[in-house]
UniProtKB/TrEMBL annotation:
Protein species of origin: Jiangella rhizosphaerae
This protein's name: Alpha/beta hydrolase
Segments forming a coiled coil: none
Taxonomy of the source species: Bacteria, Bacillati, Actinomycetota, Actinomycetes, Jiangellales
The entry's keywords: Hydrolase
GO biological process: proteolysis
Amino acid sequence: MIRTITQTTVSWKGRQVPTEATSPGEIARRIDQFRADAAGAADAPAMLVLPGGAYGRHAPHEGAPVASWLTSLGIHAFVFSYPVAPARHPAPVRAAAAALAWIRGGAHGLPVDPGRVGVIGFSAGGHLAASLCAGPAGDRPDRCVLGYPVISFVRQPHDGCSRNLLGPGPGDAARHEVSVEEHVDDRHPPTFLWHTAADDAVPAGHSLSYAAALVARGVPVDLHVFAEGRHGLGLVDRPDDAHLDARRWTSLCESWLSAAGWTP
Protein backbone atom coordinates (compact mmCIF):
# COMPACT_ATOMS: atom_id res chain seq x y z
CA MET A 1 0.00 0.00 0.00
CA ILE A 2 1.27 3.48 -0.82
CA ARG A 3 1.35 5.48 2.40
CA THR A 4 3.15 8.83 2.11
CA ILE A 5 4.81 10.65 -0.76
CA THR A 6 7.91 12.72 0.00
CA GLN A 7 10.62 14.12 -2.24
CA THR A 8 13.12 11.49 -1.12
CA THR A 9 11.42 8.17 -0.42
CA VAL A 10 8.05 6.49 -0.66
CA SER A 11 6.72 3.81 1.66
CA TRP A 12 5.26 0.97 -0.39
CA LYS A 13 3.70 -1.88 1.60
CA GLY A 14 5.96 -1.15 4.55
CA ARG A 15 9.28 -0.72 2.76
CA GLN A 16 11.07 2.46 1.70
CA VAL A 17 11.90 2.85 -1.97
CA PRO A 18 13.71 5.68 -3.80
CA THR A 19 11.73 8.22 -5.78
CA GLU A 20 13.66 8.59 -9.03
CA ALA A 21 10.47 9.50 -10.94
CA THR A 22 8.56 11.28 -8.17
CA SER A 23 10.35 14.62 -7.68
CA PRO A 24 8.20 17.63 -8.64
CA GLY A 25 10.47 18.47 -11.56
CA GLU A 26 10.36 14.95 -12.95
CA ILE A 27 6.57 14.76 -12.54
CA ALA A 28 6.16 18.06 -14.41
CA ARG A 29 8.40 16.78 -17.22
CA ARG A 30 6.29 13.65 -17.61
CA ILE A 31 2.90 15.40 -17.65
CA ASP A 32 1.01 17.07 -20.51
CA GLN A 33 -1.71 19.28 -19.05
CA PHE A 34 -4.97 20.31 -20.70
CA ARG A 35 -7.10 23.17 -19.39
CA ALA A 36 -10.84 22.64 -19.08
CA ASP A 37 -12.81 24.43 -21.80
CA ALA A 38 -15.23 26.00 -19.32
CA ALA A 39 -12.63 26.78 -16.66
CA GLY A 40 -12.79 30.26 -15.17
CA ALA A 41 -11.73 31.70 -11.87
CA ALA A 42 -13.46 28.96 -9.91
CA ASP A 43 -11.62 25.73 -9.21
CA ALA A 44 -12.65 22.85 -11.49
CA PRO A 45 -12.27 19.07 -11.17
CA ALA A 46 -9.23 17.36 -12.68
CA MET A 47 -8.37 13.87 -13.89
CA LEU A 48 -5.03 12.10 -14.06
CA VAL A 49 -5.00 10.24 -17.40
CA LEU A 50 -3.08 6.94 -17.54
CA PRO A 51 -2.85 5.39 -21.04
CA GLY A 52 -2.38 1.67 -21.53
CA GLY A 53 0.46 -0.15 -23.24
CA ALA A 54 1.15 -3.31 -21.20
CA TYR A 55 3.61 -1.41 -18.98
CA GLY A 56 5.94 -1.30 -21.98
CA ARG A 57 4.79 1.88 -23.72
CA HIS A 58 2.04 4.53 -23.62
CA ALA A 59 -0.80 4.16 -26.15
CA PRO A 60 -1.23 7.62 -27.78
CA HIS A 61 -4.96 7.24 -28.47
CA GLU A 62 -5.62 6.74 -24.75
CA GLY A 63 -3.81 9.94 -23.79
CA ALA A 64 -4.33 13.31 -25.48
CA PRO A 65 -7.67 12.40 -27.15
CA VAL A 66 -9.07 11.34 -23.78
CA ALA A 67 -7.78 14.56 -22.22
CA SER A 68 -9.50 16.61 -24.93
CA TRP A 69 -12.78 14.81 -24.24
CA LEU A 70 -12.45 15.56 -20.52
CA THR A 71 -11.74 19.24 -21.13
CA SER A 72 -14.92 19.45 -23.22
CA LEU A 73 -16.77 18.38 -20.05
CA GLY A 74 -15.19 21.16 -18.01
CA ILE A 75 -12.56 18.93 -16.38
CA HIS A 76 -8.82 19.66 -16.38
CA ALA A 77 -6.77 16.72 -17.63
CA PHE A 78 -3.18 15.65 -16.96
CA VAL A 79 -1.75 12.92 -19.19
CA PHE A 80 1.06 11.16 -17.34
CA SER A 81 3.90 9.24 -18.97
CA TYR A 82 4.48 6.92 -16.03
CA PRO A 83 7.59 4.69 -15.85
CA VAL A 84 7.42 1.54 -17.98
CA ALA A 85 9.79 -1.40 -18.62
CA PRO A 86 12.61 -1.75 -17.88
CA ALA A 87 11.26 -0.03 -14.75
CA ARG A 88 9.56 -2.57 -12.49
CA HIS A 89 6.94 -2.47 -9.75
CA PRO A 90 6.57 -0.35 -7.66
CA ALA A 91 8.08 2.40 -9.88
CA PRO A 92 4.88 3.08 -11.89
CA VAL A 93 2.53 3.29 -8.91
CA ARG A 94 4.81 5.43 -6.78
CA ALA A 95 5.27 7.84 -9.69
CA ALA A 96 1.51 7.95 -10.36
CA ALA A 97 0.85 8.65 -6.67
CA ALA A 98 3.34 11.51 -6.80
CA ALA A 99 1.62 12.84 -9.94
CA LEU A 100 -1.73 12.79 -8.15
CA ALA A 101 -0.23 14.74 -5.24
CA TRP A 102 1.40 17.18 -7.69
CA ILE A 103 -1.95 17.88 -9.32
CA ARG A 104 -3.58 18.51 -5.95
CA GLY A 105 -0.66 20.74 -4.92
CA GLY A 106 -1.31 23.24 -7.71
CA ALA A 107 2.24 23.73 -9.07
CA HIS A 108 0.82 23.41 -12.60
CA GLY A 109 -0.99 26.75 -12.27
CA LEU A 110 -4.46 25.57 -13.29
CA PRO A 111 -7.49 26.30 -11.06
CA VAL A 112 -7.99 22.77 -9.73
CA ASP A 113 -10.28 21.79 -6.87
CA PRO A 114 -8.01 19.53 -4.76
CA GLY A 115 -11.08 17.74 -3.41
CA ARG A 116 -12.15 16.67 -6.90
CA VAL A 117 -9.11 15.01 -8.46
CA GLY A 118 -9.83 11.69 -10.11
CA VAL A 119 -8.04 9.16 -12.27
CA ILE A 120 -8.88 7.51 -15.58
CA GLY A 121 -6.91 4.59 -16.95
CA PHE A 122 -7.08 2.09 -19.78
CA SER A 123 -5.75 -1.48 -19.91
CA ALA A 124 -2.42 -1.43 -18.01
CA GLY A 125 -3.14 2.19 -17.17
CA GLY A 126 -6.39 0.94 -15.68
CA HIS A 127 -4.39 -1.38 -13.44
CA LEU A 128 -2.25 1.56 -12.38
CA ALA A 129 -5.33 3.70 -11.72
CA ALA A 130 -6.91 0.95 -9.63
CA SER A 131 -3.64 0.56 -7.72
CA LEU A 132 -3.82 4.22 -6.71
CA CYS A 133 -7.21 3.50 -5.17
CA ALA A 134 -5.60 1.07 -2.71
CA GLY A 135 -3.65 3.76 -0.85
CA PRO A 136 -4.59 5.72 2.28
CA ALA A 137 -7.83 7.70 2.02
CA GLY A 138 -6.08 11.07 1.89
CA ASP A 139 -3.81 10.03 -0.98
CA ARG A 140 -6.41 8.31 -3.17
CA PRO A 141 -8.20 9.69 -6.22
CA ASP A 142 -11.67 11.07 -5.54
CA ARG A 143 -13.19 9.26 -8.55
CA CYS A 144 -11.96 6.38 -10.70
CA VAL A 145 -12.76 5.57 -14.34
CA LEU A 146 -11.41 2.30 -15.78
CA GLY A 147 -11.58 1.19 -19.41
CA TYR A 148 -10.94 -2.52 -20.09
CA PRO A 149 -8.49 -2.62 -17.16
CA VAL A 150 -5.97 -5.28 -16.28
CA ILE A 151 -6.94 -6.13 -12.70
CA SER A 152 -5.59 -9.54 -11.73
CA PHE A 153 -2.12 -11.00 -12.16
CA VAL A 154 -3.36 -14.30 -10.73
CA ARG A 155 -6.56 -15.02 -12.68
CA GLN A 156 -6.41 -14.66 -16.47
CA PRO A 157 -3.15 -12.67 -16.23
CA HIS A 158 -1.92 -10.61 -19.16
CA ASP A 159 1.52 -12.00 -19.99
CA GLY A 160 2.92 -8.75 -21.36
CA CYS A 161 1.89 -6.75 -18.32
CA SER A 162 3.24 -9.40 -15.99
CA ARG A 163 6.59 -9.59 -17.75
CA ASN A 164 7.01 -5.81 -18.01
CA LEU A 165 5.85 -4.94 -14.51
CA LEU A 166 7.23 -7.85 -12.49
CA GLY A 167 10.02 -9.23 -14.66
CA PRO A 168 10.39 -12.80 -15.95
CA GLY A 169 9.04 -15.62 -13.83
CA PRO A 170 7.44 -13.67 -10.98
CA GLY A 171 6.47 -15.70 -7.92
CA ASP A 172 3.01 -16.06 -6.44
CA ALA A 173 3.66 -13.45 -3.76
CA ALA A 174 4.53 -10.81 -6.36
CA ARG A 175 1.48 -11.65 -8.46
CA HIS A 176 -0.86 -11.37 -5.47
CA GLU A 177 0.75 -8.11 -4.40
CA VAL A 178 -0.27 -6.39 -7.64
CA SER A 179 -3.67 -8.10 -8.10
CA VAL A 180 -5.78 -5.13 -7.14
CA GLU A 181 -9.04 -7.04 -6.66
CA GLU A 182 -7.41 -8.49 -3.55
CA HIS A 183 -6.75 -5.06 -2.01
CA VAL A 184 -10.17 -3.37 -2.21
CA ASP A 185 -11.56 -1.84 0.98
CA ASP A 186 -14.52 0.38 1.85
CA ARG A 187 -12.48 3.57 1.33
CA HIS A 188 -12.11 2.92 -2.40
CA PRO A 189 -13.47 5.87 -4.43
CA PRO A 190 -16.65 5.54 -6.52
CA THR A 191 -15.77 3.82 -9.78
CA PHE A 192 -16.98 3.70 -13.39
CA LEU A 193 -15.96 0.50 -15.21
CA TRP A 194 -16.40 -0.52 -18.81
CA HIS A 195 -15.25 -3.51 -20.85
CA THR A 196 -16.32 -5.57 -23.85
CA ALA A 197 -17.30 -9.22 -23.68
CA ALA A 198 -15.35 -9.83 -26.91
CA ASP A 199 -12.03 -8.58 -25.51
CA ASP A 200 -9.64 -11.49 -26.00
CA ALA A 201 -6.52 -9.66 -24.79
CA VAL A 202 -7.80 -8.69 -21.34
CA PRO A 203 -10.99 -10.69 -20.70
CA ALA A 204 -14.02 -8.98 -19.19
CA GLY A 205 -13.56 -11.20 -16.15
CA HIS A 206 -11.03 -8.63 -14.92
CA SER A 207 -13.70 -5.95 -14.65
CA LEU A 208 -16.32 -8.39 -13.37
CA SER A 209 -14.12 -9.59 -10.51
CA TYR A 210 -13.20 -6.03 -9.62
CA ALA A 211 -16.81 -4.90 -9.62
CA ALA A 212 -17.71 -7.85 -7.40
CA ALA A 213 -14.97 -6.87 -4.94
CA LEU A 214 -16.24 -3.28 -4.89
CA VAL A 215 -19.85 -4.33 -4.35
CA ALA A 216 -18.82 -6.68 -1.54
CA ARG A 217 -17.29 -3.72 0.29
CA GLY A 218 -20.12 -1.28 -0.36
CA VAL A 219 -18.22 0.86 -2.87
CA PRO A 220 -20.43 2.60 -5.48
CA VAL A 221 -19.64 1.13 -8.89
CA ASP A 222 -21.14 1.69 -12.34
CA LEU A 223 -20.27 -1.31 -14.55
CA HIS A 224 -20.91 -1.58 -18.30
CA VAL A 225 -20.00 -4.66 -20.35
CA PHE A 226 -20.68 -4.26 -24.07
CA ALA A 227 -21.11 -7.29 -26.31
CA GLU A 228 -18.75 -6.36 -29.16
CA GLY A 229 -15.41 -4.65 -29.58
CA ARG A 230 -11.72 -5.46 -29.51
CA HIS A 231 -9.28 -4.54 -26.77
CA GLY A 232 -7.92 -0.98 -26.78
CA LEU A 233 -10.95 0.88 -28.14
CA GLY A 234 -10.16 4.14 -26.38
CA LEU A 235 -12.89 6.67 -27.15
CA VAL A 236 -14.38 4.29 -29.76
CA ASP A 237 -14.27 7.11 -32.30
CA ARG A 238 -12.76 5.38 -35.34
CA PRO A 239 -15.06 5.25 -38.39
CA ASP A 240 -14.96 1.45 -38.50
CA ASP A 241 -16.13 1.33 -34.87
CA ALA A 242 -19.23 3.45 -35.48
CA HIS A 243 -21.50 0.39 -35.22
CA LEU A 244 -20.27 -0.57 -31.75
CA ASP A 245 -22.56 -0.02 -28.79
CA ALA A 246 -19.41 0.52 -26.72
CA ARG A 247 -19.17 4.02 -28.18
CA ARG A 248 -21.81 4.98 -25.60
CA TRP A 249 -19.34 4.66 -22.74
CA THR A 250 -18.34 8.32 -22.96
CA SER A 251 -21.92 9.58 -22.65
CA LEU A 252 -22.59 7.13 -19.83
CA CYS A 253 -19.46 8.28 -18.04
CA GLU A 254 -20.38 11.92 -18.58
CA SER A 255 -23.75 11.28 -16.92
CA TRP A 256 -22.00 9.54 -14.03
CA LEU A 257 -19.62 12.46 -13.55
CA SER A 258 -22.44 14.97 -13.87
CA ALA A 259 -24.47 13.23 -11.18
CA ALA A 260 -21.48 13.65 -8.86
CA GLY A 261 -21.23 17.37 -9.61
CA TRP A 262 -18.06 17.08 -11.69
CA THR A 263 -19.39 18.85 -14.79
CA PRO A 264 -20.69 22.44 -15.07
